[in-house]
TrEMBL record:
<dbReference type="Pfam" id="PF08002">
    <property type="entry name" value="DUF1697"/>
</dbReference>
<dbReference type="InterPro" id="IPR012545">
    <property type="entry name" value="DUF1697"/>
</dbReference>
<protein>
    <submittedName>
        <fullName>DUF1697 domain-containing protein</fullName>
    </submittedName>
</protein>
Length: 194
């Protein structure tokens, strides 16, 4: 059985460092035996089909090894299947339809993060900014955008999420990943790959 997945690469193509061209990423995923590979933007988003049945962690580990071998540096990767991505979009605790996409983000985690990990953060001190935990994810509402967010800055402190791989996407990308991993998603081209 073929499953559609998204690969979320962390911290590439930022400020001219850790460059992973999307064409090369598509080639690596194809060499790993995946099909219908497409990428979205330059920030490390790919969708692909796989019959491997190895599970998300094994697929991510294989991609991480391939990237390190090809480019000479390590990149954390998260792999998530379509059903999970769709559930994350559907379960958003904020009114996504009435917000600008730059105001809403999802941070995907490598494992479930319990509320005790973030208990030291007093959310009321950051209002109207807010976050809610989800299934291996965190929803972040930042009315003035991520770049100006004091709450996002506080959440990025290494001590809070030590040992957890985390990568954040804005709401446009969250929705696009759902679309690209849908079986009838019209995949096969490189959407937004420049």
């Amino acid at each position: 059985m073929t499953t559609r997945y998204a690969a979320l690469l962390r911290g590439i193509n930022v400020g001219g460092k850790r460059k992973v061209p999307m064409g090369a990423l598509r080639e690596l995923l194809t060499e790993l035996g995946h099909s219908d590979v497409t990428t979205y933007l330059q920030s490390g988003n790919a969708a692909f089909s796989s019959q491997a049945g190895d599970g998300e962690e094994a697929l991510a580990a294989a991609l991480e090894r391939a990237i390190e071998k090809h480019f000479g540096f390590a990149v954390d990767c998260l792999i998530r299947e379509h059903a999970y991505l769709a559930a994350i979009a559907d379960d958003c605790p904020f009114p996504a339809d009435s917000l600008e996409p730059k105001q809403l983000h999802v941070t995907y985690f490598s494992e479930q993060v319990g509320p005790e990990r973030l208990a030291a953060l007093d959310q009321s001190a950051f209002a109207p900014e807010a976050f809610r935990l989800g299934d291996r994810s965190l929803y972040l509402y930042v009315p003035d955008g991520l770049g100006r967010s004091k709450l996002a800055e506080a959440l990025a402190r290494p001590a809070l999420l030590r040992g957890v791989v985390a990568t954040t996407r804005n709401w446009n990308t969250v929705r696009k990943l759902v679309e690209l991993t849908a079986v009838s998603g019209g995949y096969g081209e490189s959407a937004g790959a420049r």
